[in-house]
Amino acid sequence: MLSRVRVWLNRTYAENVFFMDQLRRNPSDRAVEIHATHGDPDSPVLAAADTAELEPEGLSPAAYVEYALAQCSRRGIDVFVPRLHQAAIVAHRAEFEAVGTALLAPTPEAVAVFEDKATAYEAVRSVGVPVPPWWRVRTAHELVSAVEELEADGHRACFKPAAGAGGVGFRVITRAPFSLLHLNGFPGPHVQLDLVVDALERADHPVDWLVMPRLEQPEVSVDCLTGTDNRVRLAVGRTKNGRRRGFTLHEQWLEPARLIAEGFGLHHLSNIQFRMFGDRPVLLDVNARPAGGLHQLSLCGVNAPWAAVRLALGEDPGEIAPPFLGQDYTVVSGPRPLRPVSLPAQRVDETEPLLPAVPAPATEPAPEVTTEAGTPATARA
């Protein structure tokens, strides 16, 4: 009988509750126990795990590596899926292996390349993968110059942090003056150029942004599973066009994704995103980690998390082709349980003096007053 597999996910995205569900429902029918840590006690991944802990705050990357090694040793972790401080952790892969833990993560070199989007664009362009035109800007003058050049070519300009995950910090530049139109409906990504310039001129430190043309849909995220031999075992594209989502195996998306995953050591799970620039796909972003939407490949009959864990354990799953492509779908939110509240919320800043814990003894009887209804009531100071 095969022993159970112990997997740890650290400070990961809420969507990875589905990653955890898939590990437990693996086609090998193997017992999986999941440990989760997070800084937020209300993260649903803590409730979904078999064991869970709150992470200590304020640890440096080096101190976090020590914390992680202690967790792996004490908890008997077989496979660690790091998100927080991934770069520091993968640099100590040998130390994790020494305590019996395999890292489900890329090489240190791959993490370094794709931590910075400008470095990533330069790197993938050197191997023939198309990228959009882009400018790295740190000042208001550089921003305006890049925006004017893009607009002269008929493009809408946008910017995003050179380092970051997801859509955090992404904005689309507009020259339309601020008006009530911008206050209708839900907040959007558009921001007035003059407001951005004013903010940059008043800032006490430079920014580090990429300015580029607003790319068009569809957006295609290719989920890849790559072995330490730099050979891709699985590549499936997830398409997004507005609310509608689907799947693709078209080589215009998969071929450049394989080239990146195999050429840069993106071992285990990665997610490589493309959008359209004119009539051709160009690279949007590379995530050296499992995507939050990875579980959606289950609609194609694929359990990618389990295949990745097997690969991390040295059990090569071989080439994986989806037996079918699922129908188009959309994503809606749903309820997930949370852990019981262990401590009530504590009030830390008082605006009024608190009442004493026990009432002070009265020095004289309180006078009795009568309400309009004739009911006696005790007067209060």
Give the strand order of the largest sheet, numbering strands 1, 2, ... along the chain: 3-2-1-4-5
What composes the largest sheet? 5 strands, parallel
Low-confidence stretches: 343-381
Residues in β-strands, percent: 15-25%
* Rg, nearest Å: 27 Å
> Tally the helices: what do you get?
11
Report the average pLDDT across residues: 89
Order of helices and strands: EHEHEHEHHEHHEHEEEHEEEEHEEHEE
Oligomeric state of the chains?
Answer: single chain
Helix share of residues? 25-40%
What distance lies between the first and last C-alpha atoms, to the nearest angstrom?
74 Å
Number of strands: 17
Structural class: alpha/beta
Rough outline: globular
Please describe the structure with a list of short key phrases separated by commas or semicolons.
381 residues, alpha/beta, 5-stranded parallel sheet, 11 helices, 24% strand
Structure description:
The chain has 381 residues and is α/β, with parallel strands linked by helices. Helix content is 27%, strand content 24%. The chain is built from eleven helices and 17 strands. It has helices at residues 17-24, 44-48, 61-75, 86-90, 93-98, 108-115, 117-126, 140-152, 193-202, 251-263, 304-312; strands at residues 5-10, 32-38, 51-54, 79-81, 102-103, 135-137, 157-161, 171-174, 190-192, 209-213, 216-226, 232-241, 244-248, 268-277, 280-287, 368-370, 376-378. Strand 1 (5-10), helix 1 (17-24) and strand 2 form a beta-alpha-beta unit.
